[in-house]
Amino acid sequence: GAVVSQHPSRVICKSGTSVKIECRSLDFQATTMFWYRQFPKKSLMLMATSNEGSKATYEQGVEKDKFLINHASLTLSTLTVTSAHPEDSSFYICSAHILSGGLAKNIQYFGAGTRLSVL
Amino acid sequence: GEDVEQSLFLSVREGDSSVINCTYTDSSSTYLYWYKQEPGAGLQLLTYIFSNMDMKQDQRLTVLLNKKDKHLSLRIADTQTGDSAIYFCAESPNNTNAGKSTFGDGTTLTVKP
């Protein structure tokens, strides 16, 4: 199946610093990527939809100035957590969307996730 | 809004069959998915089914869909210890935006030797 690479897998940073997480589709082009946040023992919360060449679409309640998303190419989207605070500590997961042949496929492939710990 | 519900825990013995159930509320759901998440990892797509299908089988996995009751199940035959993980059910309301999928809270499957 399609491969999505997410980097880094784990990051520990001091409060007030910014952290960048990369999401790459390795063997396909993704015009749309998604960023999720997952709390312990909880489901995925969609944060934003990253669109190649245009601004990201953020879900209600997600601060766009806090979570900066850039989708500069068809294979790379980045999420930057700016001025991170301990409450931003979480598991962040990206996915890339394959839309092929209309109803033939409508699939997301997920990265392995990034564990962010803010001290 | 849309809602997807799953039971939180399931425990089975190795070699038995596991059945994980899911209910959803959105009658316009077109795609229904099952994902597996191992500790500290992302989600792995296991299988998916279109809303115009009743059943899909893929090796040890069987997905049953009851559209009338909005009920989806995942059966794992001959469950192995490596199947221990969290399983998420998800639905997508249209055929162009899988990212807008609604996820259940996940069922933690524990397989005992």
What does this protein structure show overall?
- The complex is a heterodimer of chains A (119) and B (113).
- Chain A is built from no helices and 11 strands.
- In chain A, a hairpin with a 4-residue loop joins strand 9 and strand 10.
- Chain A is mainly β.
- In chain A, the strands form 2 sheets. In chain A, strands 2, 4, 5, 6, 9, 10 and 11 form a 7-stranded mixed β-sheet that branches. In chain A, strands 1-3-8-7 form a 4-stranded antiparallel β-sheet, with no helix packed on it.
- The termini of chain B are far apart.
- Chain B is globular.
- Chain B is mostly beta strands and 113 residues long.
- In chain B, strands 2, 4, 5, 9, 10 and 11 form a 6-stranded mixed β-sheet that branches. In chain B, strands 1-3-8-7-6 form a 5-stranded antiparallel β-sheet, with no helix packed on it.
- Helices cover 0% and strands 55% of the residues of chain B.
- In chain B, a hairpin with a 4-residue loop joins strand 7 and strand 8.
**Overall body shape of chain A:** globular
Uncertain stretches of chain B: none
SSE arrangement of chain A, N to C: EEEEEEEEEEE
Q: Which structural class do you get from the secondary structure elements of chain B?
A: mainly beta
Multimerization status: heterodimer
- Runs of chain A in which pLDDT lies below 50 for 5 or more consecutive residues are none
Question: How much is the average pLDDT of chain B?
Answer: 90
Beta content of chain A: over 45%
The portion of residues assigned to helices of chain B is under 10%
Instruction: Tell me the fraction of residues in β-strands of chain B, as a range.
Output: over 45%
Provide the gyration radius of chain B in Å. 13 Å
Helix content of chain A: under 10%
Q: Report the end-to-end length of chain A measured between terminal Cα atoms.
A: 37 Å
Q: Element order, helices and strands of chain B? A: EEEEEEEEEEE
Number of strands of chain B: 11
Biggest chain pair interface: A-B, 26 and 24 residues
